[in-house]
Each structure stands twice: as structure tokens, then as C-alpha cells.
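Handoff note, outgoing to incoming analyst
You'll be picking up this chain. Sequence as last confirmed:
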Amino acid sequence: MSAKSKPVPYVLYLAVLPKYRTECMRILSDRLGDALRLFVSPAHLDSSVRTGIPESMYTTVPIKRILGNRAFVQTGHWRTALAAGTTILDLNPRSVTAWSVLLSRRLLRRRTLVWGHIHPQAGPSSSTAFLRRGMRKLADGTISYTYRDAEKAVNDIPGSTVWVAPNSLYRAEDIKPAEGCEKNSVIYVGRFAPTKKVRLLIEAFAIAVRSEPEIRLTLIGGGEELSLLKGMVARLGISEQVAFPGWIDDLSSLREYYSTAFCSASPGFAGLGLTQSLGFGVPMLVAEDEPHSPEIELEASGGVAFFQSDTPDSLAQAILSAWEKRAQAPQAHLSEYVESRYSAEAMANGLQDALQDGPTNNVKGSNGQRK
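Most recent structure output, in case you need it:
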């Protein structure tokens, strides 16, 4: 058999690889070189979730939405995914492709892993939870987004093999406290969508600023509610205290904004924004009763203060309490916690260990670096 016809050792065949996975994929690609191939589509079922890693790193495969946008099929390069030594697929029951490749490789007795959320958003008692469990039973192992979910995965299927590739944003060397002289801002970074409840944050800020006029609010992001939010700010008479810098994902620019923040806020469900904020050493105010993403496990760092969900007065009081402690920001121990467990290196380690059937304890050293 010629070199060109030999199966690729490692394949990732996924719906999307968002921009925040860039550093992890760079590290993994640098380590594995031509032994690794990435296949992804331009966008997910939710078109706002798009592939954002550099185009040179992956091969595009078409995606087709089916069953009223409830499921999807990806086409192209199935032969490579089927023949690979180890293939990683989405742990997502909506992917007809993931099911098809998983079942085919099972029959061919080829090693296949699934990567994603261990349970549906509705939890392990959801009526669809059995589908994810079924995919995991068909696979040779599971890659979890978080340490807490990895424990749940092992409990779900005793004896199963589970790796952790912790959802991460930055390399360890970039996870440092955002130092700054003036700490007067509450910061929000994310989409302006109804589920993120930015309106609640604006309402709460309007209450808090009456007591402490020096407080400012920085809303970084964009989305369908941008005009509505700007109109709300104007009606409340707080335009001078609220800034809308737009979408920002450049690390150095974000660091500048976080350097003026004494806290961040998640008025809706919390996700990767929590990892980002704590990585900069900035504690976050989080709603108690929301369908948070698995990243909520970072509450163990001590950097999360909860407030009563959908209650502006409770959030306003949380803002004022954080204001009283503003001299403590940034908190170096929060950055250290994220650096040691949620760096791009730690995420790449988990994927590499899974691909190469290595140890399931994938955090190596204090910053995720390989020894």
C-alpha cells in the first residue's frame, strides 16, 4: 500500500470548531502534524455558532439541516473518517453523520470517541438523555468538556473510559490577572440575546448607580437585542454610565476592558464567559437558577457570587457588594486556578491523550504543559 493510501491515524469530524478553540487546535496540530486531519462545517444548526479557526487548519464539509432544523447531516470525506485509526465525533444525537460513522466504525471494529456534553441541557433525567448514553456505549470512550461532567460520565456508565478536554480559551502564558489602576466597571461579554438577559443587568445597574454614581457598565458584544438595549439605556437616563464597545475577541483589547472591571455579570445562563472572567482575575455575579453550561463548575474557584434569578434588586445588591470589595480586584488566585486547569494546553492534552489512548488524568504540571 502506498503512503498516500494509508489511513490517517487521527481524525476529528465535527459540526464546527468555533474561534475560541483556535489555540487548542494549534497546539494539537503542532504536536501531531500530518497524522491529524480536521473536518468541520461552516455553521451549526444555530447559525450564530460558526467555525472560526484558521481555514488552513481544516477541511470544509457541507452540512444539511433536516427534520425541520432539528437534525443535520454532514457529507464529504466519510471514507477518511471511516478508515482513520481513531476518529472523534460529536456527542450530539442530532448529528445523523455522527450516528452513521459511529455505527459503521463499530461494525468495522475501529476505535471511535465521542466529544461533547455528557447530558442534554435539561439534565440526566431528560427524555432524550438515553440518546447520548447510547452514543457513548457505542463508542470506545468519551471526551468531556469539564471535570465535573467526567465524573458524571463514569457514574452513568461504570467502567467507561473518559477523558477531560476542559473547555478553554487561552494559552497558559496568557491567563494572567488584568491589572489596572481604576476599578469602576461592571463588565458583560457575550451575545445580546433574550436568553442572556442583558436587559436584567441594565435594569439592575440603573438601581445600583443611584447609590454609587461612580460605577460604570461595559457591555461588550452584539446581537439581536442591541437596538433594544441601547433604547433601554437611554430611557433609564444612564447613557453616560454605559458603554457599548461592540464585538471584541482580541485578547489584548479584552484585557484592557477587564483591567477596569471590579466584577463581571452573567444575568442569564453562564458559560465560557465565566472561564474568561476568572482567567483575568475578575469575579463574576451569576444568576442562581439558570440552565448554566458545564463551565459553572468554576464556582469551586471561589470567584462566583450568586444572586436571585430574574430579580433586578438582588443583582443590584450583588453589584454594590462587589463594589465595596473592588480593591481586591484582580484576584490572582482566580487566574491561577484557571491557568492550572483550563488552559488551551490542558484542553489539547485531553484530546491528545484520548486520541493516543493515553492516561485519563490529562492535566500535566501547573499550567497544562507537557513534561
